[in-house]
Design a protein that fits this description.
The radius of gyration is 22 Å and the shape is globular. Strand 31 and strand 32 form a beta hairpin. The protein is mostly beta strands. The strands form 7 sheets. Strands 19, 22, 23, 25, 30, 31, 32 and 34 form an 8-stranded antiparallel sheet that branches. It folds into 3 domains: 71 residues, Immunoglobulin-like (Sandwich); 84 residues, Immunoglobulins (Immunoglobulin-like, Sandwich), CATH 2.60.40.10; 230 residues, Galactose-binding domain-like (Jelly Rolls), CATH 2.60.120. It contains no helices and 34 strands.
Length: 428
């Protein structure tokens, strides 16, 4: 985390090599399940040459299951109600890591919408996450989601995770399941999309500022930057979705060097013609949505991709930082402002290689500048993050709202590119 030129503070950190990683594929984070609950997970480590020795499942702080090796697949009989489940790995060098998966065990069949909450206010583009259970021995066959009575999406199986586009106003969203015995059940949540939301479109076409960051202390430097090279090019027609994408590239010779590109949307040097010179707009903003399509050109040499929202006003510094660690473990990290560090979410991040990926970040702040990462969606699959952090404690003297796109170099600092298209920002 460094002070950037002209007092613009964008919190970025070099992604170092992964240490250890526990990826839980079942149950889902916050899912409602029946008993016995199925646990499936894998683990890896890059700091212990002897590898992972064993894995285990804790439920409500009690170790319920242990297995040797790097994978785990078991079922556990659990009482109905909410449980704090944790899957942990132990390596053969004395280290350990873990991933939490809070779950609810249902006492009977039904549909549980885990996100969003009933009577909540949501963004115009919102993810809906639901699971279904049934006493039918043949299980749940399919599920569907309805927006104001109209079917929008259907899927086979007992889980549903889908984004919906909604207009401002009140909406009734229903999820229904059908089992293999001819039965069905449903659940409904009422949500409100606020009026007065504002959108910026095609931000990839704007002029972006940039600089590099070099190891070992993430030193910011402008071009030329010894050992770190970067560039961007607008007006790319292929690969592109809109016919007008932007290519971002990083390279050089110094391992683990990064390239940070940023677009100053509101405030100082606004690219949208909104300098907010009297400082009347930005202090009123509490909700943001960052939507974009990202093309990953070569995942094998991409250490990480970072997408951030930054807000600075009246001495406050707030960064909603997200990082998809690709070579670093295929997991989403979020930025803990108060402690100035990256925090693993336990949510997998597996972007399509040599293809387009759609990313949606939904965040908010309260009146005390506590920052909540509500959700991250990748290719339509929403991961409920629901983590809240304090603002950065160091007073700031810059003013504005900024989005970032950062490319992190790997151990060999191989040159690679990523592309943005249809980049959109919503605020209210």
């Amino acid at each position: 985390m460094k002070r950037l030129p002209h007092a613009l503070l964008v919190l970025v950190m070099l992604t170092a090599p992964a240490f250890a990683n526990v990826t839980v594929t079942s149950p889902g984070n916050g899912a409602t399940v029946t008993s016995p609950a199925k646990f499936v997970a894998t683990a890896s480590t890059t700091t212990c040459s002897k590898g992972v020795g064993s894995m285990g499942v804790y439920v409500d702080n009690k170790l319920e299951y242990v297995v040797n090796g790097t994978s785990l697949n078991t079922t556990l009989a659990l009482a109905a109600g909410s449980h704090n489940a944790v899957v942990q790995e132990w390596d053969q060098c004395g280290g350990a890591s873990k991933t939490a998966v809070p779950i609810t065990v249902a006492s009977k069949g039904g549909v549980w919408i885990s996100w969003p909450a009933n009577n909540s206010t949501v963004a115009p583009i919102s993810g809906f996450v639901a699971t279904a259970t049934t006493p039918c021995s043949k299980g749940v066959s399919s599920m569907a989601i309805f927006l104001d009575g109209q079917k929008k999406y259907g899927v086979n199986g007992a889980t549903l995770n889908q984004q919906l586009n909604m207009t401002p106003g009140n909406h009734k969203v229903g999820v229904e399941e059908w089992d293999g015995c001819g039965g069905a059940s449903n659940s409904v949540v009422n949500v409100t999309v606020p009026g007065g939301t504002h959108n910026f479109y095609n931000l990839q076409r704007d002029t972006w500022n940039s600089w590099g960051q070099e190891t070992p202390l993430d030193q910011d430097c402008g071009a030329p930057c010894p050992g770190d090279t970067w560039s961007y090019q607008k007006g790319i027609t292929a690969p592109a979705l809109s016919g007008n994408a932007t290519q971002f590239t990083v390279g050089g010779t110094k391992p683990y060097s990064d390239a940070l590109f940023f677009n100053q949307l509101i405030g100082v040097a606004s690219t949208q013609g909104m300098p907010d010179s009297n400082h009347s707009l930005i202090p009123t903003l509490h909700n943001y949505v960052f939507n974009t399509d990202v093309y990953v050109a070569d995942a094998s040499v991409t250490q990480a991709l970072e997408l951030d929202i930054n807000m600075f006003y009246n001495g406050h510094g707030l960064t909603f930082g997200t990082e998809c660690r690709i070579e670093g473990g295929y997991e989403w990290d979020v930025w803990d402002n108060g402690n100035a560090k990256w925090t693993p979410t336990g949510v997998p991040c597996h972007p399509v290689n040599q293809g387009w990926n759609h990313y949606t970040l939904v965040v908010s702040r309260d009146d005390n500048n506590n920052l909540t990462f509500q959700s991250i969606a990748l290719n339509g699959v929403t991961a409920v993050i629901n983590k809240t952090y304090a603002e950065w404690p160091v007073p700031q003297d810059w003013y504005g709202v900024v989005i970032d796109f950062q490319l992190d170099g790997n151990y060999a600092q191989n040159t690679f590119s990523a592309y943005l298209d249809n980049t959109m920002f919503t605020y209210w």
